[in-house]
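Chapter review. Work through the record for Sporulation integral membrane protein YlbJ before attempting the end-of-chapter questions.
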Amino acid sequence: MKRNWEAKWKTVLLASAATLFAFSLICYPKQSLEASIRGLTMWWEVVFPSLLPFFIVSELLISFGVVSFLGVLLEPLMRPLFRVPGVGGFAWAMGMASGYPSGAKLTARLYQEKQLTTIEAERLSSFTNSSNPLFIFGAVSAGFFNNPHLGLVLALSHYLGNISVGLIMRFHGIWKEQGQPKRRPRPFSLPYALRTLHRTRLKNEQPLGKLLGDAVRSSVQTLLMIGGFIILFSVINKLLYMMHLTEQLAQLLGHLLRLAQLPEQLDIPVFSGLFEITLGSQMISQTNEATLMEKAVATSFILAFGGFSVQAQVASILAEANIRFQPFFIARLLHGVFAALFTYLLWKPLYVRAVGGERANIPTFLHAAPGSVWDEGWRWLQQYGPLMTLLFLCLYIWLMVKAASESRGRP
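Structure tokens for Sporulation integral membrane protein YlbJ:
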């Protein structure tokens, strides 16, 4: 009876939320369109061209057996530290290099390949999702803060926080594994790793063209889903602001900011960052009432939390593989706390002493941003990213049409 009552309340709540969202779109059509265009621009210029190569290469590496090869080599490291197989090292490295939500996609793929158990997949997805260095150094540090020196503090805090989450989540589900035979890490053996590589490749007898086509289709389909979530949450964030709900909800966040000894003026920027990290980071960088260290701590938290937009993307990917989302959400909260704490601890040794105490107190909009590698990479994406997106979308359409014609031609 109680469960039935809860189900009815959930139905009413979801229906009411969807109705309110539809009514808001009707009341604020211009603002909704602007927010949609902003989300589409971010996906078109940056997200698609930056993630697509990693997704395609990851699919090919799994098919060719390279991931199994690395899994054997990394088993002595990943099993004792994080209680996951060695293949988790590949997902971890690719997740840090390419950013959200690559770690979840690779975890789901490895789980579907039966290289991970359910508990191991939940552990692995909790610490293999992070912001990529290009976004941290290029967009946030050089782009929003005009201060490339800030990138080292943000990046190191971000990845140290990720490692800390992995060390904590190694205890996740440990009680469910009681009574099961323990897997001892296989000692490092290059010959055995090479044999595993060869056996995995022989299992997949598909031609190279078929493998490449499948990798492109799977990657583009995932990125189309990601683009939809980016646009959706960009609109939701804007509608909350137009209905003055952002100000009301941000007041509750202001109490937590006071406990963390951060200025209340960061409440709306941080609240916006809880939905979409790009907008939140930009708004935090423009808050003149906070010091640079306070801005860095707040930015570290929302970069690690990932935003509800990223979490919705991950939830969709994990749901397709029947992997629970709850451990991932708890890990994001832990990651946010750890990243903010590491930023505070590393501020003096990595920023103040390296840049100079006086300069560290200058408002960030007065900093000149030299042309660093990350900044140039970010500018390259904004300039040539749309062309790359268009070309691969055309390739995706051609592959889908070709696959449909081949299926119709079969007897």
